[in-house]
Amino acid sequence: MHYISDLQLQRLIEEDLPSGDLTTQTLGIGTAAARMEFFARGDMTVATIEEAARILEMLGVRARAACCSGAQVSAGTRLLSATGPAGAIFAGWKVAQNLVEWASGIASEARSIVDAAHAVDRSVVVACTRKAPPGTRILAQKAVVAGGASIHRIGLSDTVLLFPEHRQFGGNEALRDQLARLRMSCPERKLVVEVKNIGEALIAARNGADVLQLEKFSPSGVTDTIAMLRELGHAGPLIAVAGGINARNVADYIRAGARIVVTSSPYTARPADVQVVIDAVPER
Prior knowledge:
Layout: H1 6-16, H2 22-27, E1 33-40, E2 44-45, H3 49-58, E3 62-65, E4 72-73, E5 78-85, H4 86-118, E6 125-128, H5 137-146, E7 150-151, E8 160-162, H6 174-185, E9 191-195, H7 198-206, E10 211-215, H8 219-231, E11 238-242, H9 250-256, E12 260-263, E13 274-280
Parallel strand pairs: 6-7, 6-12, 8-9, 9-10, 10-11, 11-12
Antiparallel strand pairs: 1-5, 1-13, 2-4, 3-5
Helix pairs in contact: 1-3, 3-4, 4-5, 7-8, 8-9
């Protein structure tokens, strides 16, 4: 479960409402009773609908999410309903709608990659990177999990991932020495090594890497690497693939032998389309 603080949501409100709602204030309709509903315009995997309801509640609206993050819905499905003063409804409208559309686009793309991967092998893990736009990571992570994917790295502090750039510091024996140091200092962590060619993969495997992250390999390159590792008796490391993986090509990488798929594709997904209906509530 991802914890999204009130402070984080308050910042979204403040961004869109720095000095009040000029249109609603000028029209003098802020205290009128209003109703708002969100509907899916197309098939989608829903994300952050709970946060959308909380945003509206923070503004003084009574809001209820009609589904949960992770729900796969069809066109016409009601996602949220809310009632309250028109001023509060209008203040929260676009903040809540934009959040759900953006996050649900990420979740829907993550779901499409997971579904394509699991159509070949349900044991494969699809993991999303930390390449979400700055300031959006916790919300983006909730979205990819809603889409059925895992988090590759929450941040720099939780996993050991040795990049080729790290190996620039240490001379010819950098990989061997750095892996030995990491294993001694972080014995409870898996050692993940990113490699850019078969030669680097063989050296990393020989020196005890737990996971080989093959960066921008073709599917045939993945197959060749696995075959070479087996031939030389280094078939132990798990094979992860990264770089350009999406719903269209993920199946090829699974068939090639990848066990973990690392992708950033969901973060550039087109937002989902949410229809918003706002009505005045007649006085009794």
